[in-house]
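Q: Joint fold for the lines below.
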Amino acid sequence: MSLATDFKRGIWKENAVFKLLLGLCPVLAVTTSAENGLGMGLATTFVLVCSNAVVALFRHLIPAKVRIPCFILIIASFVTVVQLAMEAYAYDLFLALGIFIPLIVCNCLILGRAEAFASKHPVSHAVADGLGMGAGFTLVLFVLGGIRELIGAGAFLGFSVFGAGYQPVLLMILPPGAFITLGLLLALMNKVEKR
Amino acid sequence: MNEFPRLLIALTLIAVIAGAILATVESVTREPIAEQRRLQMLRALSAVLPAFDNSPDSDTLTITTGSDRQGREVETIFYRGRNEEQLVGTAFRVMAPDGYSGNIAVMVGIRPDHSVHAIEILTHAETPGLGDKISAPWYKALFIDKTLEGSDWRVKKDGGEFDQLTGATISARAVVGAVRTGLELYREHEDKIIAQGDNP
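A: Joint structure:
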């Protein structure tokens, strides 16, 4: 399989959220605005690509029996690096995403890709897979955040869209809005696929 | 069973490498992070104090102002803003323990005449879209110029004069309570804050 196939697979055919339903905790929790979704998606993508690369690099050295703790250690290290770097050099983004950054560790998408793909493939393919999966994940978070922000706050990326007279549907910003939007999007996806 | 040492070595090795990398990153980012936090503190101080020409984050006074539920002492750091050596305002952090989700940290700036110059919400975890309106500029502006006697320190729903936020009365109530606590704290410790100010 070519690198391009590995990359494209994550965006649609095996999209982490829409097809595999992985990593739903951050998907539902941080998508209150398009900007938060985008920031979280990019941070997750970075961790995913790095951990995929390292796991693929050491795939012959990590004993099968302790592979899960090894993967988690690698992932947790990258998450901590991201957190420290963000706090030092992108403080505003850190304040916006602060409590969700450590949660990237327990995003099962990352562990899932390390286990299912990176530990069985060479580094280049693992990186392509990480980029693709990350792009697919970021896309979903951005779309979901955009829809919820648009309906729930009448804005997009912080800019008012419907004007001051718009009465925001607060439900969309609250947790139920995340479930409802995701459910409707999944139904739409399935409809499109069936056709 | 002979596999065991191999597992042990592999896992230990990875943990050691991860630890070494993290230690390096931590030591590189330690100073920028401390600087960012100091800048954020200064930004908050500039937002709540009248124009000052000293550095309030080094002109401080720490007073034990009470105890929390576990009986531990709570210390409040008073930051004094001065202009041409004259005290123009005092800023300090008040914790509102009764937010809708967790504590709300409020920075209040109080002028020597016991009125609020401005407030700033430092940290909170209130509901996005509802309770997080407490950090909106129009909401924080409600407290400007208010004094302990001059206002009824309750939200309108409770018979006071401060707007509650639709769907987030609890958050608004917590902030109003915190600012009032701030004014009371200032009154209680004013002599110490000013006395030390005369001979810095």
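Q: Anything notable?
A: Chain A is about 65% helix and 0% strand. The CA atoms of residues 64 and 70 of chain A lie 10 Å apart.
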